Amino acid sequence: MSFSVGMIVNPAAGKDIRRLVAQGRFVPNEEKVNIVKRLLAGLEAAGVEDVVLMPDADMIARAAAEAVHTKLRFDFLEMPVFHDEIDSTRAARLMAERGVGCIITLGGDGTNRAVAKGSGDVPLVPVSTGTNNVFPRLIEGTVAGLAAGVVARSLVDKAKVTRRTRRLEVRRNGELKDIALVDVAVSKESFVGARAIWDMTTVHEIFVTRPHHGAIGLAAIGAKLPEFAKDGASGMYVRLGSGGVRVMAPIAPGVIASVDVQSWRALKLGEPVEVDYRPCTIALDGERTFSIPQGERITVCLTEAGPPVVDIEAALGLAAQAGIFCSTGA
Fold first, then answer.
1. Has this prediction a pTM greater than 0.85?
2. CATH number of 4-165+307-321
3. Side-chain half-sphere of 26: how many Cα atoms within 13 Å?
4. pLDDT higher than 60, residue 23
5. Boundaries of CATH 3.40.50.10330 in the chain?
6. Is residue 22 pLDDT above 60, yes or no?
7. What gap in Å lies between CA 31 and CA 166, rounded to an integer?
8. Is the dihedral of CA 100, 102, 104, 107 positive or negative?
9. Mean pLDDT of the chain
10. Residue 224, SS3 per DSSP
11. How many other C-beta atoms are found inside a 10 Å radius of the C-beta of residue 41?
12. Would residue 322 be called left, alpha or beta, if left means φ above 0 and alpha means ψ between -120 and 50 degrees?
């Protein structure tokens, strides 16, 4: 049996407008290559044999694969590259069809949203290289690769080391239009323009999968409300505007803003909430994605249909308990 892991590298992650209007993190391609090389070292040490790679536009994955001396076999997907999020979605779907044990992603919230639309029930190991990151973790690649390897090889019980995440489902006239893993925002702007959300005066309302106290971005706003500071379990709905409270929140790297919140409440699982502002644009995980004209019905619903994610510490801890990293002395 061949043990394989998929890897999706987004070369555009961490390069949006927030590097100009805020102090957004910038991860150059050279460092992404180094991260991939460290991930590969972890995978090989865990006994993975095959790595299925998405052919990214900047050839980051190929540069890393050609630079390492390894027994790993590399298989680059044969697929068209459009330099768009559809590349990540298609690659994830192809990897899932090939039966990879898990998929490692290098990117931010937007990258993982795109991957989640194609990965199905394959566990993800999200490694942060984006600007505003809530879903992926900032973690050393060697460790992430090792954890991905023990999960892909079924050396630990996947049910014990993965957790099913939530997602927000956006429906347009009753049909599923798109999803978000962290937040959905309704922007007063009529056109997508610069995709990243950074000007809070343009935001009408926000839907969040759950309050994230350590987050930067839209998800951080609701987490600063006292009621939700005690309860990180429920999702939440926040309407911005005067007449309520003013919240101090880190809305972008290096930017802490005072945001007027008119009203807020818990967002229950399975509860569709209708968006009433028109015309508008819908932002998914911090990026404006599509416009809504007058006359179209839009609802947002919180579900538990998000992708499973590997708990790295739990995976490595169970592997250590099972003696996976030990061998008898010479």
1. yes
2. 3.40.50.10330
3. 10
4. no
5. 4-165+307-321
6. no
7. 30
8. positive
9. 90
10. coil
11. 17
12. alpha
